[in-house]
Write a structure and sequence with these properties.
This protein is an alpha+beta fold. It is built from 1 helix and 4 strands, in the order αββββ.
Length: 60
């Protein structure tokens, strides 16, 4: 069985563990109709369009 030769310091151990829990900021893309930022692969909350088609009717 493999056994570590030296004790791993708490700082080194914590550095390794901390990278696992980092969250990424969500990616945004511009709506083709209105140019607002929206989440990719979702209906635009501003104008209601998805892939050039009106999915949700929004009043202007």
């Amino acid at each position: 069985m493999a056994v570590p030769k030296r004790k791993i310091s708490k700082a080194r151990r914590d550095k390794r563990r901390s990278s696992v829990w980092k969250l990424d900021a969500p990616a945004f893309s511009k709506c083709t109709q209105c140019g607002e930022l929206k989440m990719p692969h979702r209906v635009c909350p501003n104008c209601g369009f998805y892939k050039g088609k009106e999915v949700i009717k929004k009043e202007a």
